[in-house]
Amino acid sequence: MKRDLDQTDRRILAELQRNGRLTHQELSERVGLSPTPCARRVHNLETAGYINGYSARIDEEKMGFGLTAFLSVKLDQQIDDRLVSFEKALAACPEVVDCWLMTGTRDYLLRVAVSSMEEFERFLTGRLTKVPGVASIESSLAVRRVKGQMSRLG
């Protein structure tokens, strides 16, 4: 974390990470500031890019996506055109909820959320294996989430 954040800024970020719907009044009480300076700090954190948006965390299982798989993908070539075309193809796949470009023996790590093994198979064989440049795929199914948090703040 950048060094120019003080403890109050870090507390603000941690509280908002836990609950992004806090009012300025509630937030100011939790971090020990009056509402106006607290709101000013939140605005400064947003402007500086420390806060880049607000969203709701959705329970994927309740939404019908109870199967989570992690896939390591290796491309046939790691050149700019191949990376760009692969990333564009993934952008059109709603099953892929997270994607990282990686170092090491694999090029990408994907997190896929689907409703069933049949849907996973359709995604894997019907879509991902057909993306140009995919050389190999290794998949692992998640048994259960042990820990999940947005950052090291909270």
From TrEMBL:
PROSITE patterns listed in its UniProt record: HTH_ASNC_1, HTH_ASNC_2
Keywords per UniProt: DNA-binding, Transcription, Transcription regulation
InterPro entries assigned: ArsR-like_HTH, AsnC-type_HTH_dom, Dimeric_a/b-barrel, Tscrpt_reg_AsnC-like, Tscrpt_reg_AsnC/Lrp_C, Tscrpt_reg_HTH_AsnC-type_CS, WH-like_DNA-bd_sf, WH_DNA-bd_sf
Residue ranges of domain HTH asnC-type in the record: 5-66
CDD domains assigned to the protein according to its UniProt record, in alphabetical order: HTH_ARSR (cd00090)
Name of the featured protein: Lrp/AsnC family transcriptional regulator
Source organism of the structure: Roseibium litorale
